[in-house]
């Protein structure tokens, strides 16, 4: 590691219509260091990285690369100068092979023909940075790779294009524990090669594991720039201006938990086996497990999307093995999908229409003719208010809302159906810390008013913080249960199959 | 009438803007050419009446496009319906009702098959309805080769009759459009159409039976097309196996829906925009007759307007984002 920074940004400011995205931000990274960039969504991390990579021009401030002034006017210019960004949405072509993707735009040719052999060799060489056993064959279409492997192809491509500064935008968001560990090894390797890594993340554990320096952005300004890695609490305090204790609402008091509402006995389908558990009124039940353990499959089975094929499910004593979401909603079980934009919202339609989708879909066909079901909007507006939805204009497209407010629109949609069981899948994926806290408060309020709440999340601290009881899944089965207050290690041991070492 | 399920926006170039622009061009062109008699109410009504067939078809087409589907079988179904109507009627007044019932039944069967093939067999709607068009056209051409049958004089009043000085056919189009608009804006089914077109996965998870919505939309679309066939039989006095194809009702109904602001991706748009698109096409036709310009130039202008309208919408909505 040398002392001179590989790149340096000084006094960067950037405004968009109506919002000052960045003001007086300085940021730098040296060769062979991992600089963690953290902050809530909307704090300006992505804008800063878009300036570094030539997508935006700063309004004020300047940059240097290797000590020389650097002002890319186009992303290609930044790329050829050695700056690469791995965004969360990959830029790979899913139906082309790994080798083709790695040579995109500079395919080797022999005469007028593509030199397939050179492409394969080039791909092997590019993937060699990951050592042995990465399992990525150059001939495979990218679509057939796991998310983690696709990410490795992205990284390999960046390095093959000569990247010396590599920005990674929440690289572990879609990875399971084992894949994360593998990525950390890759990052270690990059450091050893002398690459300057900028690592954007929300996860404190990763900062401790990887980073050599930390910069915290808040509201477009640097709220902490540290040349060491502080305890997680300190980072979070710099991000939100408060500590973790207030983050999760208090658990249910013993008297608040009522009788079982939903009972599942020996249920299963292609992905699930021997599932038995109860959800109780007034209680938040969390489901933990590694990626692919069956948590989401379980939620989808309960909701009738991929129904159970065997077993018994009852809701308040009545048969509840639903064959479609419509049956589930009618019986009082609703689900907030994990992919808000893909599965939850009609993005181009208005906030109000998105809230009214289900109330309208379940309105009686022949109702009060002076109040046709599609036009009666009073109820949903009250619910929006009750949930403190921040939307300037209920007629604006729902895509203009922040992630937290979008989630509230879906909550309102379901509250209009007066559900008895609410299933939250990844309720806070991609939403900022303050909005997370308000979603947790909403979940607790719903439980307190007598609903049974089920939470499925791959964010372990979230499941542990918000739930009264945690059920752990592994390989399509329920493998254990822990009360609130169990340690993360205990839950992980169950989830990964090392439960034998932990006394339960 | 505000169209509730579509997002209302300020500063938007909507179908109304484009209709006004077209109207201004029309009036100026006619004044400039000195043929002011074409601005008389009678001529305007005549101009609009010539667009009734396209209008009825486009109402159905708009409904399927709103749920992110499409129907290329309307032209063939129009021909088949017109032939079926005139053959069954055979010039006899007593056969009018059976003929109408037979045509509507044909429309329902076609729509149902389209909907089932798209939802249950998961065939892309473009392919499913193209296949349906070829099947219908093939059978039709095998059975008849020219004008077949005849509609009785009384049935022809569907085209030529007037009520309170207004053409019956134009009133009928107005009722069809108003009915469709009421369904889209005021009913659960209408709301579900917008939801399915907006995001089919989200709609399913919101508790909507998306397959039924798509099937019902295709049923309505095919019914509209078969009614158009009835209307054309009334207008021409008989049905021939090429009238739908010659009228290019498949592509033109899609074109007017798109000019009217209905997005091919589904979920946004409405009937009144489509009606504006129909009016624009009617004005172009009339204008070219007045000015006596080559029919090929008309096609060029229509094509240009489709692209320009969609570009105007796209640029308008991008400006809002920035």
From TrEMBL, chain A:
Domain ABC transporter intervals: 7-244, 257-500
Keywords (A to Z) from UniProt: ATP-binding, Nucleotide-binding, Repeat, Sugar transport, Transport
One example GO MF annotation: ATP binding
TM ranges: none
KW Transport (keyword) present: yes
InterPro entries, A to Z: AAA+_ATPase, ABC_carbohydrate_import_ATPase, ABC_transporter-like_ATP-bd, ABC_transporter-like_CS, P-loop_NTPase
Domain of life of the organism encoding this protein: Bacteria
Pfam families per the UniProt record, alphabetical: ABC_tran
SUPFAM superfamilies given in the database record: P-loop containing nucleoside triphosphate hydrolases (SSF52540)
PANTHER family: CARBOHYDRATE TRANSPORT ATP-BINDING PROTEIN MG119-RELATED, GALACTOFURANOSE TRANSPORTER ATP-BINDING PROTEIN YTFR
Protein name per UniProt: Sugar ABC transporter ATP-binding protein
Native source organism of the sequence: Rubellimicrobium roseum
TrEMBL record, chain B:
Source species, domain of life: Bacteria
Subcellular compartments: Cell membrane
Keywords from the UniProt entry: Cell inner membrane, Cell membrane, Membrane, Transmembrane, Transmembrane helix, Transport
Membrane topology, from the record: Multi-pass membrane protein
Residues that span the membrane, as ranges: 12-32, 44-65, 72-89, 95-118, 125-144, 164-184, 213-234, 254-284, 296-316
GO molecular function: transmembrane transporter activity
CDD domains per UniProt: TM_PBP1_transp_AraH_like
Subcellular location, principal: membrane
GO terms for cellular component: plasma membrane
Function: Part of the ABC transporter complex LsrABCD involved in autoinducer 2 (AI-2) import. Probably responsible for the translocation of the substrate across the membrane.
Assembly information from the UniProt record: The complex is composed of two ATP-binding proteins (LsrA), two transmembrane proteins (LsrC and LsrD) and a solute-binding protein (LsrB).
PANTHER family: ABC TRANSPORTER PERMEASE PROTEIN YPHD-RELATED-RELATED, AUTOINDUCER 2 IMPORT SYSTEM PERMEASE PROTEIN LSRD
Name by which UniProt lists this protein: Autoinducer 2 import system permease protein LsrD
Organism: Rubellimicrobium roseum
Source taxonomy: Bacteria, Pseudomonadati, Pseudomonadota, Alphaproteobacteria, Rhodobacterales
């Amino acid at each position: 590691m040398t002392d001179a920074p590989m790149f340096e940004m000084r006094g960067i400011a950037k405004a968009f219509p109506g919002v000052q995205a960045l003001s007086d931000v300085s940021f730098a990274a040296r060769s062979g260091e991992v600089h963690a960039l953290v902050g809530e969504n909307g704090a300006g991390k992505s804008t800063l990285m878009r300036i570094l990579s030539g997508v935006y021009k700063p309004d004020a401030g300047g940059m240097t690369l290797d000590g020389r002034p650097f002002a890319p006017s186009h992303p290609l210019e930044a790329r050829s100068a050695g700056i690469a960004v791995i965004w969360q949405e990959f830029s790979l072509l899913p139906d082309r092979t790994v080798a083709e993707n790695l040579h995109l735009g500079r395919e080797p040719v022999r005469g007028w023909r593509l030199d397939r052999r050179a492409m394969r060799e080039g791909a092997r060489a590019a993937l060699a940075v990951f050592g042995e056993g990465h399992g990525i064959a150059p001939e495979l279409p990218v679509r057939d790779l796991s998310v983690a492997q696709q990410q490795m192809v992205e990284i390999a491509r960046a390095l093959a294009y000569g990247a010396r500064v590599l920005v990674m935008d929440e690289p572990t968001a879609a990875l399971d524990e084992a894949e994360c560990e593998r990525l950390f090894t890759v990052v270690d390797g990059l450091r050893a090669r002398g690459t300057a890594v900028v690592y954007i993340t929300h996860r404190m554990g990763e900062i401790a594991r990887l980073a050599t320096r930390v910069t915290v952005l808040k509201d477009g300004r640097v709220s902490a720039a540290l040349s060491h890695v502080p305890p997680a609490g300190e980072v979070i305090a710099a991000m939100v201006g408060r500590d973790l204790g207030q983050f999760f609402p208090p658990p249910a008091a013993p008297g608040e938990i009522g009788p079982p509402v939903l009972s599942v006995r020996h249920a299963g389908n292609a992905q699930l086996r021997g599932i038995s558990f109860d959800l109780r009124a007034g209680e938040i039940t969390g489901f933990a497990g590694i990626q692919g353990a069956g948590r989401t499959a379980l939620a989808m089975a309960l909701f009738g999307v991929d129904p159970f094929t065997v077993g018994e499910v009852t809701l308040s004593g009545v048969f509840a093995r639903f064959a479609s979401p419509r049956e589930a909603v009618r019986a009082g079980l609703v689900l907030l999908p994990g992919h808000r934009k893909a599965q939850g919202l009609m993005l181009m339609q208005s906030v109000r229409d998105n809230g009214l989708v289900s109330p309208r879909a379940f309105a009686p066909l022949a109702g009060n003719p002076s109040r046709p079901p599609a036009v009666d909007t009073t109820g949903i507006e009250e619910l929006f208010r009750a949930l403190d939805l921040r939307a300037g204009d209920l007629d604006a497209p729902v895509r203009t809302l922040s992630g937290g407010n979008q989630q509230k629109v879906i909550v309102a949609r379901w509250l209009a159906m007066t559900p008895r069981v609410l299933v939250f899948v990844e309720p806070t994926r991609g939403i900022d810390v303050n909005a997370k806290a308000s979603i947790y408060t909403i979940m607790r309020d719903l439980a307190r008013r007598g609903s049974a709440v089920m939470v499925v999340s791959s964010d372990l601290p979230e499941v542990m913080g918000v739930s009264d009881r945690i059920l752990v899944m592994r390989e399509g089965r329920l493998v254990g249960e822990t009360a609130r207050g169990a340690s993360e290690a205990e839950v992980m041991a169950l989830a990964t199959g090392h439960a034998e070492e932990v006394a339960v | 009438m505000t169209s509730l399920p579509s997002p209302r926006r300020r500063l938007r170039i909507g179908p109304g803007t484009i209709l006004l622009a077209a109207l201004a061009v029309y009036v100026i062109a006619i004044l400039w050419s000195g043929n002011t008699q074409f601005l008389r109410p009678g001529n305007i009504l005549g101009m609009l009446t010539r667009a009734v067939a396209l209008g009825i078809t486009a109402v159905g087409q708009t409904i399927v496009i709103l749920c992110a589907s499409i129907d290329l079988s309307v032209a063939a179904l129009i021909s088949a319906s017109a032939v079926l109507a005139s053959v069954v009627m055979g010039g006899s007044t007593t056969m009018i009702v059976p003929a109408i019932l037979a045509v509507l039944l044909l429309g329902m069967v076609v729509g149902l098959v389209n909907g089932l093939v798209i939802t249950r067999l998961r065939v892309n709607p473009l392919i499913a309805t193209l296949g349906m068009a070829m099947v219908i056209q093939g059978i039709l051409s095998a059975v008849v080769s020219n004008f077949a049958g005849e509609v009785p004089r009384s049935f022809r009043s569907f085209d030529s009759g007037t009520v309170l000085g207004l053409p019956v056919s134009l009133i009928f189009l107005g009722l069809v459009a108003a009915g469709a608009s009421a369904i889209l804006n005021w009913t659960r089914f209408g709301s579900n159409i917008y939801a399915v077109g907006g995001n089919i996965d989200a709609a399913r998870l919101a508790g909507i039976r998306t397959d039924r919505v798509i099937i019902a939309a295709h049923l309505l679309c095919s019914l509209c097309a078969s009614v158009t066939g009835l209307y054309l039989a009334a207008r021409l006095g008989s049905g021939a196996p090429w009238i739908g194809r010659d009228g290019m009702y498949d592509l033109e109904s899609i074109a007017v829906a798109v000019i009217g602001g209905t997005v091919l991706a589904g979920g946004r748009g409405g009937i009144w925009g489509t009606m504006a698109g129909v009016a624009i096409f009617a004005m172009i036709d009339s204008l070219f007759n007045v000015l006596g310009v080559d029919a090929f130039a008309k096609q060029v202008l229509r094509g240009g307007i489709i692209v320009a309208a969609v570009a105007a919408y796209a640029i308008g909505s991008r400006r809002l984002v920035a």
